[in-house]
Structure formats: structure tokens, C-alpha cells
Amino acid sequence: MTALDHRPLTDPEIIPEHVTRINEAKTPSGPGRPGASTAHITASTAHLSVEDIERIGAELEAIRDEVMSSLGEADARYIRRVIRTQRGLEIAGRILLLGALFPPAFVAGTASLGVAKILENMEIGHNVLHGQWDWMRDPEIHSTTWEWDHVSTASSWQQTHNYLHHTYTNVHNKDRDIGYNVLRVDPDQPWHPTYLFQTITNLGLALIFEYGIAAFDLEIDQVQRGEKTWAEKMPEIRTMLRKAGKQALKDYVVFPALSGPSFVPALVGGLLANTIRNVWSHAVIFCGHFPVEVETFDEERLENESQAEWYVRQMLGSANIEGSALLHIMTGNLSHQIEHHLFPDMPSNHYAAIAPKVRDLCRRYGLPYHAGPMWKQYGGVLWKIARLSFPGGHETIAKRQRRSLPVGRKAAATLRRLRERAVPQAA
């Protein structure tokens, strides 16, 4: 235990209901019952025995335990340094946009504000709301108190993202993030004529991504399915509209008004900064979830799913982006999407260090580890969306998915050696 464990937190024994539900999706106490392994149902895991999967789970929990037991002052300094940098960039951007009539100030201010918004949403907001920094017991950097610079409220996003998405990752009819209810991103999704235009729909979604996510978080489809009435939904809708109104007032009225004669270019600068953030976050999230090789699952997969099988599903249903340290920070370390899905409450600054261990684990057990440079990942996602806009696109995608499976004679031999070492030799 570090000295930071004793930092005060507003009544730390009282845990809000939504956080309790979010914790159900965290490791090592995730869904399923330890040892309740079921049959393998995907081509990428058919070569593994129940014992293999349990050993994978044990290795991953050991990786997690090593990191979580090491958290301390250096980690606290890291997140506080990132927050200071983000706030400095935002202040600099706002000040520069006061003189937005001067083109260099407009360009520099817009760029600074755009980077600040990316950092706030990705490396700070997303990760703080996952509870990655709750161990610090700092009431200002805590999943129950943080409200981010985004149209979605923290509580609604935690419900749809932290709980639903991270618990039921890539499970049809459970994980609503598969296509966000507007895109066909998986061959198993039935084709509909509206998907013919999804290339254009996806472009529009990228430009207004935060608003699209906010609308998605409202789960209006609950009303369409008869699970809730409009009267029951209205409090959530009003809360979201209030948050959206405050965001718009801040970015498009208050700060531009402070610039006086530069009101219009300052407003445009704020709009461009938000657009930069939206397009970037859209690209990062789509690269992590929708590459061709990433797998989806039927609901039957969840029946008696053990913790170890949950780990395997996270690895098969995610993809990484390869790049520099700066790229990783600007993606909120969601460039390590596989590691994030395995350990959503692990501080993001540790993902880069454990990624080689997870990759080696996949190699040894003949599992795919989906990773590639951003241009390749995003290009593949855009191609996939375009191909699935047509009724026959699922056949092409399915063929590419089969070709991506890594299992072969070399992987089988490695797995055989692992099994031999795991079984004590007879005297």
C-alpha cells in the first residue's frame, strides 16, 4: 500500500449504483464463474483445450496483479502532469483565439484547443471515468466526480460504455457499440437498403461524433422496443440537452464573445477544434473495434462464460494501433485497445509495457493479436464499411477473416510444448 491510498475521498464507503454495475465489467471479478468453461465456438480458439484457456486467464491475471500492486506516486505524477498540460493547452488556445482576426493566432489557437480537447477526452476523461485513477482517492480525479468536455454526461457514458460495451464486447444483441445502431460493420448484421449510404453516414458521424455518441447513450431504441416509455426517457433526454447546451454556450457564445471583434473567427476556431477532436476520436475508436480481422460473437458465448473465456473474447474482439509514444498519448492509449479491453481499470500509462507480454501470450497459444499502423487499420475499416454497404459484402469480409487466423503447424508445435511443460513427468 502506498501513501496515496490514504488520500481523503468524499465518503469513500458509499459507492454509487452505476459504479457498482461498472465494477462488474472489471477484472478480475468480471462476468462468468471461474472454471465454468464452455465449448470453443470460434475457429480461432478451436485448437485450445479448457486447460489452455484457463492457463491464459491465469497468465493475464498475473500480469494485471503485477501492475496494480505497483501503482504509486510516479503514476499519480503522470496523470496530474497530463491534466496540467491539457489545461495549459486549452488556456493557450482560448487566449490565442481572442486575436483570431490575426490568421497566425487563429491557426495556432485552433490547433492548441483541438489538441487540448483530444487529450481531455482520450487520455484523461475516458480513463478517469473508467476508474483507472480511483486508487489515488483524489476527489478531483475520480470516476464518481469527473465530468468531461463532451456532450455525453459522465453517468450515461459509463452505463453504455463501461458496463454494456466492456461486459458484452462484440456480442450481438448485447453490445450496442457494434455499428452504433447506424452502420453495418459486421458480416453477421442483416443487410438493409439504408446501408447503401453508410459511407456517407460514417463521414457525417465522424464530423459530429460526440453528438452521435450522446444520442446513442440515450438508448432511444428502448422506447422503440417497448422497454421504456417516452415519459420515462424524458429525464435522460433533458439531462443530455442541458449538457449539450452548456457545451455549445461555452464554445460558441461565451469565449467568442470575449474576443470582441474576433467573435466570428473565434467561433469558427472553436467549431474546428471540436471537429478535429470528433474526427480523431472516431478514427481511434473505429481502428480499435472494427478492423476486418476483429471477431464478433453470438449470445450463446455468454452462457457460463468463465473469467478466462471473457479475457479471450476481449483479445479476439479488439485491435491495436502501432505507433510512437506521442500517438499513444493522443489516443488515450486506446492504441492499446486489446490491453484496455483486458484491463479497463488499469491506468493507461502501463498499457505500452504490458502489450509485448500480451502479444507473446497470443503467439504462444496460437491466438490472433490484431495490430497495425493507423493508416492501415483505418483504411481497412473504411474499406470494410464500404464493402458491407452492399448485400454481398459479408462474403468478402468473411473470407478475409478466415485468412487472418494464425493457427498453423508452428503454433500447434508451440502449444504442444506448453502442454507438455504443464503436465508433470511421470517418475
Automatic annotation (TrEMBL):
Kindly indicate whether the keyword Oxidoreductase belongs to this entry.
yes
Q: Where is the Fatty acid desaturase domain?
A: 106-371
* Oxidoreductase recorded as keyword: yes
Q: Which UniProt keywords apply?
A: Oxidoreductase
The Enzyme Commission number assigned here is 1.14.19.3
GO terms for MF:
acyl-CoA 6-desaturase activity
Quote the cellular component terms of the Gene Ontology held in the record. Answer: membrane
> Could you tell me which InterPro entries the record lists for this protein?
FA_desaturase_dom, Fatty_acid_desaturase
**Entry's Gene Ontology BP terms:** lipid biosynthetic process
Q: What is this protein called?
A: Linoleoyl-CoA desaturase
Species for this entry = Actinomycetospora corticicola
Starting at the broadest rank, the lineage of the source organism is: Bacteria, Bacillati, Actinomycetota, Actinomycetes, Pseudonocardiales
